[in-house]
Design a protein that fits this description.
By secondary structure, the protein is α/β, with parallel strands linked by helices. The chain has two domains: 124 residues, Aspartate Aminotransferase, domain 1; 220 residues, Type I PLP-dependent aspartate aminotransferase-like (Major domain) (Aspartate Aminotransferase, domain 2), CATH 3.40.640.10. Helices cover 37% and strands 13% of the residues. It is built from eleven helices and twelve strands. Helix 2 packs antiparallel against helix 8, helix 3 packs parallel to helix 8 and helix 4 packs across helix 7. The longest helix is centred in the last third of the chain and has 24 residues. It is globular, with a radius of gyration of 20 Å. Bound molecules: pyridoxal-5'-phosphate (PLP). Pyridoxal-5'-phosphate binds next to helix 4. The site of pyridoxal-5'-phosphate (PLP) has 13 residues, from helix 4.
C-alpha cells in the first residue's frame, strides 16, 4: 500500500488472472485457452505485417477488420467496435453506459469475477442475482429496477448457457437499460444474441478471439450493437487511448475470422472432447455441470475441490480453483487436446481413488 495511491486504488481488490507458470511444464487447463494453434493463415498474416509500416500508428478505427466482422455477421460497420481483448470492451462499457453511484447494475452472484472489479473502479453500484445449486440464474432476477445488466452467456465458471428466448424476455423487460451479453464462450455450443441486435437498441454483444480462435496472446475482442451504443464506446476509447489494437493484431485477427473452416473444425473438436470427458467423469461419480463452453465445472463427493486442485498440480496438471462460497468444492477444467484430457482423466481417477 502506498500513500500515493488514490482512495479508489487503495480499496480495490483487483482481478486475479489465472496462473501462467514458469517453474515447470504443465498440462495447462486453467485459463480457458484453446489447445489448438491459431489458424496458420493468421500466423502468416502477422509475420507479413511485421515490416517497416510498424513505424506508423495503426488505424484507430480498425476499419478493415470492422468490415470483415460486419460482413461475417451481416451487420454494418458502425455496428462493430474492435478492442484489445474483450476485457477492455467490458471496462469501456462501464463509463459508457452505467451511471457512477447510480441505479445498480445487475449480474449473477457466480459469474466472471472481473465485473465487480470494474464496478469498484468506476464507482458503479451493483446487485448480485443469487444462483441455485445447479448455477441456474433465475430470469426474474433481472426484473428489478437497474442501471444496466451484464450476462456472461455461457456463464463462467459454470459453463451454463441461457437460451435466446430468455435473453429476448430479459431485453423486453429492460428497454431503458443497456444489456451486455459477454459471449466469450458462445462458439462452443451456446445461443448467440447477435441475431437480436437489429431489434434491440439496448443490446451490446461482446465477443473475443481469445478462446474460439486460439488467439488469447493477440488480444483482440469486439463489440456488436446498435450504432449509438458503438459510438458510446468509441467516445470512451478516444478519451483514454485511441490506438488500442496494434497493426500485428489487426492483421492476424482479420485472417483468423476469414479462415472459417479452421474455426469450425477446432471448435467442434473441443465440443466433442468436452462431451467425452463429461460422460467419463459422470460415470466415475463426479458432478459435472452441463457446459456450453470450452471448460467444465466439476466436483467430487470423495475429494474437496481445493485438494483436487493441489493434487492435480503436483501431477503437472493445472486447473482453476476459486476459494469462494458456493463454488469452493469445484474445479474448472479447460478442455485441452484429447491427449491432454486423457492425462487429466488418468490423474483425477488416481486422486479420487486414493
Ligand atoms: C466471461 C469472460 N469474459 C471475458 C473474458 C476476457 O477475454 P479476453 O480479454 O481475452 O477477450 C474472459 C476470459 O477469461 C471470460 O472468462
Amino acid at each position: 500500500m502506498s500513500r500515493y495511491w488514490s482512495k479508489a486504488i487503495k480499496n480495490i481488490k483487483p482481478y486475479t488472472p489465472g496462473e501462467q507458470p514458469k517453474d515447470r511444464r504443465y498440462i495447462k487447463l486453467n485459463t480457458n485457452e484453446n489447445p489448438y494453434p491459431p489458424s496458420s493463415r493468421a500466423i502468416e498474416a502477422i509475420k507479413n505485417a511485421a515490416d517497416e509500416t510498424l513505424r506508423l500508428y495503426p488505424d484507430p478505427m480498425c476499419e478493415e477488420l470492422r468490415e470483415t466482422i460486419a460482413g461475417y455477421y451481416r451487420l454494418r460497420n458502425n455496428n462493430v467496435f474492435i478492442g484489445n481483448g474483450s476485457d477492455e470492451l467490458l471496462a469501456f462499457s462501464f463509463p459508457a453506459f452505467f451511471e457512477p453511484a447510480g441505479k445498480p447494475v445487475l449480474f449473477a452472484e457466480i459469474t466472471y469475477s472481473f465485473y465487480p472489479v470494474y464496478a469498484a473502479l468506476f464507482n458503479t453500484n451493483y446487485n448480485l442475482i443469487p444462483v441455485d445449486e445447479e448455477f441456474n440464474i433465475p430470469e426474474e432476477g433481472y426484473y428489478q429496477a437497474n442501471g444496466g445488466i451484464i450476462i456472461a452467456n455461457p456463464n463462467a465458471p459454470s459453463g451454463k448457457g441461457v437460451s435466446r428466448e430468455t435473453i429476448k424476455a430479459i431485453l423486453n423487460r429492460n428497454e431503458s437499460s443497456v444489456v451486455i451479453l459477454d459471449e466469450a464462450y458462445v462458439d462452443f455450443g451456446g445461443q448467440s444474441a447477435v441475431k437480436l441486435i437489429n431489434d434491440y437498441p439496448n443490446l451490446l454483444v461482446i465477443k473475443t478471439l481469445s478462446k474460439s480462435h486460439s488467439l488469447a496472446g493477440l488480444r483482440v475482442g469486439y463489440a456488436l450493437g446498435n450504432e449509438d451504443l458503438i459510438e458510446g464506446i468509441i467516445r470512451v476509447k478516444d478519451s483514454i487511448n485511441s490506438y488500442t489494437v496494434d497493426r500485428l493484431a489487426l492483421a492476424g485477427a482479420q485472417e483468423a475470422i476469414k479462415d472459417d473452416d479452421y474455426f469450425q473444425e477446432t471448435r467442434s473438436k473441443i465440443m466433442k472432447s468436452r462431451e467425452r470427458v463429461s460422460v467419463r467423469l459422470k460415470d466415475w461419480g463426479f458432478k459435472v455441470i452441463s457446459s456450453q463452453a470450452n471448460f467444465i465445472f466439476i466436483s467430487s463427493e470423495r475429494c474437496p475441490g481445493g485438494i483436487l486442485f493441489q493434487r492435480l498440480r503436483e501431477k503437472g496438471i493445472l486447473v482453476r480453483y476459486f476459494n469462494k462460497p458456493k463454488i469452493n468444492n469445484f474445479i474448472r477444467v479447460t478442455i485441452g487436446t484429447d491427449v491432454e484430457m486423457d492425462c487429466f482423466l488418468e490423474a483425477i481417477k488416481v486422486i479420487v481413488r486414493s
